[in-house]
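As a warm-up, study this chain.
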Amino acid sequence: MSAHQVQLDFLKEEGIPETMKSHVADLRKQIQHHDQRYYDEAAPEIADRDYDLLYRELVELEKKYTTLIVDDSPTQRVKERSQGFLSAAHLVPMQSLDNTYSEEEVIEFMKRLQKLLPGEEVLLTLEPKIDGVAIALLYEDGKLVRGLTRGDGTMGDDVTRNIKTISEIPHQLHGKIPKLLEVRGEVYLSKKMFAQLNEERDEAGLPAFANPRNAAAGSLKQLDPAIVKERQLSAIFYGNGACEGSALKTQLELIDSLRQWGLPTHETTWRASTSEEALQGIRELGKIRHDYVFETDGAVLKVDQLAQRDRLGSTSKAPRWAIAFKYEPERAETRLLDITVQVGRTGILTPVAELEPVVVAGSRVARATLHNEEEILRKDLRIGDCVMIEKAGEVIPAVVRVLQEKRTGEERHFKMPTNCPVCHAAVIKKEGEVAIRCSNVSCPAQLQRQIEYFASRRAMDIAGLGEAVVVQLVDAGLLKSVADLYALRAEQLLPLERMGEKSVENLLQSIDQSRGRPFWRLLVALGIPHVGVTGARTLAEHFHTMQRLQLASVDEFLAIEEVGEIMAKSIHDWLRELKSIELLQQLHETGVHFGEKDIHTSSGEGVLQGTTWVLTGTLSQSRDEIAELIRQAGGKISSSVSAKTTYLLAGEEAGSKLERAKKLKVRVIDEAEFWKILRGA
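Now compare it with the structure written out below.
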């Protein structure tokens, strides 16, 4: 008789109903499925709260029927490791935290601490819970030697190459550093980058990320570090595993030390010694959490004294000295009035939910992208449905689920069109893609999106060329490609709606000025797959001109540290497509700058060589323009203040970056001093 059969017979003797055993098995199966979707595929099918409810139910049932607990239950491990990476062991197991949505359970947590530490004063720290990817970095003599994901808590994925592309993570710590140090924190994608990344994925026909956490996870799992760097991940650190040669006693001392060593940390930490103070801190954080650049879905409470943590110990999965309070997601119920279809610059048809307007997280929402037909089928969305919506990453409106119990029977199924809604050409679906595309490369909608992208602030930065103007220019037949922008004349623009003489003059001037934009901006504007701002800057700094770029081989691209195989092949193939060659020829004939006039600094050159700058507040010129001047003078630009920052250039209404710079004793300068430094005065 097998061990499994013995266990089944034992359960029968215990009198556990067969329906209960079946229900527990089904719960495990559901949770394992959602773990795979969340951790390994970065594409969750349910909200965090719904997952937590399933998990909590399994925990309670296993407590009640202890003989049902098995070694491979989701409650007995952290999670499975993902595929595609080598694995390595954490020096100290990396556990996850118990979650709660209840203030009453926070009070119970405090009571348990007092019971386990009778007569002792228990101080807590409280910090934002970032919705990111947990990582552990190993430093030896201050040098970064390894970066692991949490994995199953014992073993993690070795993502060192990808970790090293994150600008905020120092490769070498400074100050009095422990000989061996394992620091722990979160890698995250800012809300701004999350919105930008999903927009790009929609354009490319790729599935959108559900939230910034999944976007960060999907980025860290890229096998090409160049793509990881392009996504501009960030990180914050708040804990440690193994640590040799340190006398740290509290969480607050640890945070202060991490900051001094050069690692980014939370700017604000609350303290609490009672349940009332803990709940007050949770509520205060709840009021300001939307102001952070990252998405935060909760508050983490930790015992401050490290010695007390040692005595409290852990369960098999979570420490007894910490708990995560999770905020209820901000959602709203509304009705799906219709589903329309947009055509992007690459011809991809994207379904869009037209909603009965409703306020979510402080702003009015009337539309939400549905990404593709498979997403609509998976959620069983029908026109006329009552739906629940929230803001993914607190930025992008998203339809979370259908309220099927409110269906009347009058709801209508939606089917993607077989012809382009703009030019009426047949649509096509490439093998292996979920996206449906317009087959007409001359489709006005594609051209419109291409021009809008070309003229956007992150590309050629042509002021006054908004959607309404572009639509009129395309409809009037004045633009057949982006190159036609440089042939526009005043007499062609004046008849357009809301285009007076001054507006026309300003637009033509902006178009003319864009001819001389830095080479990297043109590379962004061309929309080469897998080439964003970071990749464009790298290519411009390496090749300097379009001519040299066009002559480069795949091997020459791969010789650049920041460029991987996917990006290299994409650039090489795009430059050799007939339509790309024709477009570049047209742009060159109109006088668009191809890099010949760019100023380049090499190692040891430039008055700002070796300096790192952060910009904040309102300045006399746009931040992009000033950042470009700094780069041309040999300096580097960072999005956040850290111990590695040399200068913070602060304009009017400088915010939290100014406060952080003061705490870290980073030199803060105004514009007058900046211009002096730039001139070498």
